Amino acid sequence: MSAIRKRFYKEAAVGSSDGGFCVLLDGRKVKTPKGHDFILPSRPLAQAVAREWAAQGDQIEPPTMPMMQLAATAIDRIGAERAAILAELFGYCETDLLCYRAAHPADLVKRQAEAWQPVLDWAALHLDVPLTTTDGLLPITQPAPSQAALRAHLERQDDWRLAALSVTVAATGSLLLGLALAQGFIDGEAVVAASQLDERHQQNLWGEDEEAAERLAALAGDILAAERLLSLIQPV
Q1: Residue 5 φ/ψ, nearest 5 degrees
Q2: Pick from 214, 177, 180: nearest CA to 195
Q3: How far is Cα 50 from Cα 11, in angstroms, rounded to an integer?
Q4: How far, in Å, are 29, 46, 66 from residue 14 at the CA level?
Q5: Is 146 helix (H, G, I), strand (E, B) or coil?
Q6: How far apart are CA 47 and CA 53, in angstroms?
Q7: Which of 14, 198, 13, 167 is nearest to 105 (CA)?
Q8: CB atoms closer than 10 angstroms to residue 189
Q9: Cys-Cys with 14: which of 9, 46, 176, 222 at CB 3.0–4.6 Å?
Q10: Which residue would you say has higher pLDDT here, 50 or 206?
Q11: pTM for the predicted model, two decimal places
């Protein structure tokens, strides 16, 4: 969903279809951008998407429809490219933001430890994925058992959670933050704060750059949209 086009319908509603839920525009089922059936796993998600369609004005503006975009991604892309997406996500095991710490200044070191170490401890305890950290610049190789456990955990995720996970990981640079959000260990606001900690530190030192601030706000929006998708796909 990228091009803006004129609104072509009057009403948006929710219906049932093939064991799931669909969105109806004047009674006709919505399709994905690639023409697949737009079948959603829960009524709350379908209702959220229908509200996005209903809220459109004379022009349909895809950026104002995050649930529609994420759901379409899950249907169009995740299933078809699952192996590639899993490989991409697993690659963050070697580059995860939380594993690369500052050596100085002391206040940044302290803030990273306070925000990041609880997530690392959670991953070690609940996912059986203890990871090594460094304050150096050279890449580190994580323990083989941790890599295996992480890969197995990723492979168990369904397409909907992978869609949310891929958005969160891309926005944060951290697979662990994505998993912590998906598992409910921390909320979206905490993920935003943890992932943007370094940038906020630089802003405090040198002042806020408008372009950088807009980029961080857009990334925060992606994370919060992923959090909302995760909440809406839960069975009721």
Answers
A1: -140, 165
A2: 177
A3: 9
A4: 9, 6, 17
A5: helix
A6: 10
A7: 198
A8: 12
A9: 46
A10: 50
A11: 0.93
User: Which region, left, alpha or beta, applies to residue 184 given φ > 0 means left and ψ of -120 to 50 means alpha?
Assistant: left
Structure confidence by residue, pLDDT tens digits, 186-234: 999 999 999 999 999 988 888 878 888 899 999 999 999 999 999 999 7
Helix %, strand %, coil % for the chain, to 5?
A: 60, 10, 30
Tokens 């525009």 -> residue: 25
Residue whose C-alpha is closest to residue 197's, from 174, 226, 166, 170: 174
The amino acid that residue 142 corresponds to is Q
**Are the beta carbons of 180 and 123 closer than 8 angstroms?**
yes
Report the 10 Å Cβ neighbour count for 155: 12
CA 49 – CA 71 distance, rounded (Å):
9
Q: What is the DSSP letter of 62?
A: G
- DSSP one-letter code for 74: I
Q: Classify residue 94 by burial, with Cβ atoms within 10 Å: 0-12, 13-18, 19+.
A: middle
Task: With both helix axes pointing from N to C terminus, report the angle between 66-73 and 43-54 in degrees, rounded to the nearest 10.
Answer: 130
Q: Give the separation between CA 154 and CA 222, rounded to whole angstroms.
A: 20
- Comparing CA positions, the residue from 101, 179, 89 lying closest to residue 140 is 101
Peptide bond into 41 cis (omega under 30): no
Cα separation values, 108 from 45, 102, 113, 217, Å: 39, 7, 9, 21
CA distances from 57 to 28, 66, 225 (A): 19, 16, 21
